[in-house]
Amino acid sequence: MRHRAWWAAALVLTLASGCDTRTPEAQAPPPSQAAAVRTGNFNGTDLAWIQLMLPMTEQLIPMLALGAERAQAAPLRDLAGRLRDQHRTEAGELRALLTRTGLPDENPHEGHNMPGMVTPDEVTALAQAQGPAFDEGLATALREYLAQVAMVSGSESKVGTDTDTLALATRIAADRTKDLAELESAV
Fold this sequence. Notes:
Layout: H1 2-17, H2 24-27, H3 31-37, H4 44-70, H5 74-101, H6 120-128, H7 131-159, H8 163-186
Helix pairs in contact: 1-4, 1-7, 4-5, 4-6, 4-7, 5-8, 7-8
């Protein structure tokens, strides 16, 4: 039964990433490389989650910084500021996990257009928006991001194996679910 749950979560992560149809094991480094550098009990889902969440988190931070400065609605501006600070901390935690995995410090999702992932072009477009259009664009991007991250992190928290990764995924899933509810009341 656990085997089926793992494959279901792997499928969710693959579909959520929208960019790679290989199994999570196929995305891991070769066993000889991985064995030499890994510290932890990472499975393919852990690795895929870390490699997805790090760029999603880092690419959102500039948009959150804009929102903290320019959102017209005070609740949206406050949420963006809180999320900016929280995401900076989480990016550090994700980077530490990536280091422990022994995977290269590169973004395997570079240039991919995936659900919930904010692109540099989207940040540029938002920076050019003014007034209500700015708030609407920020809220739309945040809504997509928060929903996607809550779903993917929830899947990781059910089938990952590394204790630290599971703890972070569980916390992020719960936080993003709360953040989504706060966003809905802020706009």
